[in-house]
């Protein structure tokens, strides 16, 4: 195959059905994304855009020989669909689980409180709560299906779950204020994201970097802690996308384009720095001197 052939070859795409989310696998190794709270509409937009970049942008090709990407654009399909049904439903967060109950009949489990690492800390047992943890860890088909797929992938180097809002890059732990063992490296890679986005946005978008617990308050049963603590993913993040609370979950349509392109550039540089390939590799990876798990 010639070099120009390679540039025009579309990556092989495999679809796997994990109940009930759809994981799209492109034929490269080692990165992983998802969006899980229904009302945080910018998350599926970012994930879909990233998927498109990876699949079609020739400028990303220098990363792809050594990387494999997994995307879950909508990890909470019922909740997401519900937010389109009325202006009251627009701010729904959980899935649409029928929790039973004779008096309240409150629906929904918070899918980011349902994973089995320290399940229950900073979460609620009340089905009417926005942060209801469910009857047990992985009680929900969405989380149960996703963890099965994630376990089946094998070693994952970088896990990013997109949420909104806040403009923060959060690393573990969320269930305790203790810092994890590779906190320096987690912080360095997070700063690569935030610096890249700041440059790319002409200084407009400034992310704060920090531990989930210290910055957002203790909350367990979330995907980032599970990926880090149970799967052993060395670089695991929750990225709270823009804005900082002005529009909050109702980010205007006019902000989508900037947000997805800024975020994609940030992710590109994270992966480039980790893999030692691509535009951001030399400048950043050497200085940071990390790459402990990357299997190029
Ligand atoms: O509370 C959450 O689930 C996330 N924030 S949001 O406003 N999008 O709901 C933050 C999760 C951070 N990670 C952990 N606490 N482990
Ligand atoms: Zn969220």
From TrEMBL:
UniProt key word Signal: yes
**Domain of life from the UniProt record:** Eukaryota
The annotated active site, in chain numbering, is 240
Segments forming a coiled coil: none
Query: Which Pfam family, any one, appears in the UniProt record?
Result: Peptidase_M14
Q: Which UniProt keywords apply?
A: Carboxypeptidase, Hydrolase, Metal-binding, Metalloprotease, Protease, Signal, Zinc
One term under GO cellular component: extracellular space
Q: Which is a GO BP term held by this UniProt record?
A: proteolysis
Q: Which Gene Ontology molecular-function terms are recorded?
A: metallocarboxypeptidase activity; zinc ion binding
Domain Peptidase M14, which positions? 1-274
Q: Which InterPro entries match?
A: Peptidase_M14 (IPR000834)
The cofactor(s) it depends on are: Zn(2+)
Belongs to which family?
A: Belongs to the peptidase M14 family.
Matching PANTHER family: FI01817P-RELATED (PTHR11705:SF91), PROTEASE FAMILY M14 CARBOXYPEPTIDASE A,B (PTHR11705)
What is the name listed in the Swiss-Prot or TrEMBL entry for this protein? Peptidase M14 domain-containing protein
The species this protein was found in: Halocaridina rubra
Taxonomically, what lineage is the organism? Eukaryota, Metazoa, Ecdysozoa, Arthropoda, Crustacea
């Amino acid at each position: 195959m010639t070099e120009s052939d390679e540039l025009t070859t579309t990556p092989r795409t495999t679809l796997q059905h994990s109940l009930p989310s759809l994981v799209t696998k492109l034929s490269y190794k080692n990165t992983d994304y998802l969006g899980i709270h229904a009302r945080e509409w910018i998350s599926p937009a970012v994930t879909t855009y990233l998927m498109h970049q990876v699949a079609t942008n020739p400028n990303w090709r220098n990363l792809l020989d050594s990387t494999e990407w997994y995307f879950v654009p909508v990890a909470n399909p019922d909740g997401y669909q519900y937010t389109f049904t009325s202006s009251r439903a627009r701010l729904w967060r959980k899935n649409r689980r029928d929790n039973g109950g004779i008096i309240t009949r409150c629906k929904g489990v918070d899918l980011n409180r349902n994973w089995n690492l320290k399940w229950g800390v900073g979460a609620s047992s009340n089905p009417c709560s926005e942060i209801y943890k469910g009857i047990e860890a992985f009680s929900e088909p969405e989380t149960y299906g996703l963890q099965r797929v994630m376990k089946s992938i094998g070693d994952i180097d970088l896990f990013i779950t997109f949420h909104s809002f806040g403009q923060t890059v959060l690393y573990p732990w969320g269930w305790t204020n203790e810092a994890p063992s590779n906190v320096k490296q987690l912080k360095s890679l997070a700063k690569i994201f935030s610096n890249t986005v700041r440059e790319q946005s002409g200084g407009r978008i400034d992310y704060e970097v920090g531990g989930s617990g210290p910055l957002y308050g203790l909350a367990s049963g979330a995907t980032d802690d599970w990926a880090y603590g149970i799967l052993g993913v060395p670089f695991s993040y929750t990225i709270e996308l823009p804005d900082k609370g002005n529009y909050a979950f109702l980010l205007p349509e006019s902000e989508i384009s900037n947000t997805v392109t800024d975020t994609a550039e940030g992710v590109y540089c994270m992966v480039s720095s980790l893999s030692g390939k691509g535009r951001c590799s030399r400048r950043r990876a050497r200085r940071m001197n990390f790459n402990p798990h990357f299997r190029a």
